[in-house]
Specification:
SH3 type barrels, two-stranded antiparallel ribbon, rod-shaped, single chain, 233 residues, 1 helix, 10 strands, mainly beta
Length: 233
């Protein structure tokens, strides 16, 4: 006899790890699983189909498609031979040889193993900072400018071209000759010198991940006595 403990609402999963529903009651030697996404109606799973169980999960020894095609959607009647398995959900539930599924003379022992599955999630890899810095430098440009200069030349009387007049003779005075030139003023204007293009590209690569998985191995210890050979053979 083996004893299972599970709570009301425990999840029921098939041998191929498909969620079938939740436990709502125990009726005699059967587990009542409420209808859900996979079960279109309530199912009555016999105790012989249970492989293992804990407080939150009941594992069956049959696959989901087998559970759907065994006629377990019909309510089972409990006779005198079934009264050995009694109890309510949330208390200890007894079942004889619940890890065995018998079909005629065949004994089926479920063997489980784990597979690795990978999921991806985004992570922060940091950031690329693009910073503009103001840099000053001295620059010189050449600008042509025009300057007036005064040149004084003394000419002899024989070569003079001014009209002869003695009205201004022997008078002191100052003659001013205006002189002009050009001064350079510097202005600064901003212009576009180019641009920097920043782009992000998704590059796909393969990464190897590993983990430790478990599997069950079956070892058969034959403790039977050898049969006596028939001497007539």
């Amino acid at each position: 006899m083996e004893r299972w403990n599970f709570r009301e609402g425990a999840e029921v999963r098939s041998a191929d790890d498909e969620k079938l529903g939740k436990v709502v009651a125990v009726e005699g030697d059967y587990l009542v699983v409420e209808k859900g996404f996979f079960f279109p109606t309530d199912y009555y799973i016999p105790s012989s189909a249970i492989a293992s169980a804990d407080d939150d999960t009941v594992y069956l020894s049959v696959r989901k498609d087998e559970a759907l095609t065994r006629g377990w959607d019909q309510r089972m009647t409990t006779g005198a031979e079934d009264t050995a398995v009694t109890g309510t959900v949330g208390t200890a539930w007894n079942a004889a040889n619940t890890t065995d599924v018998r079909t005629d003379d065949a004994l089926r022992v479920p063997v489980y193993e784990e597979d690795l599955t990978a999921t991806k999630r985004p992570v922060d890899r940091g950031a690329v900072r693009i910073e503009k810095e103001l840099v000053t430098e001295d620059r010189t440009i050449t600008v042509p400018v025009t300057e007036e200069q005064v040149r004084v030349t003394r000419v002899d009387a024989a070569d003079a071209t001014s009209p002869v007049s003695t009205a201004d003779a022997f008078r002191e005075g100052v003659i001013e000759v205006p002189v002009t030139g050009e001064e350079v003023d510097v202005q600064k204007t901003a212009r576009l010198a180019g641009e920097v293009v920043v782009e992000k590209e998704a590059v796909q690569q393969e990464k190897q991940v590993g983990g430790t998985v478990r599997r069950e191995e079956v070892h058969v210890d034959d403790a039977t006595e050898p049969t006596t050979r028939d001497p007539r053979a």
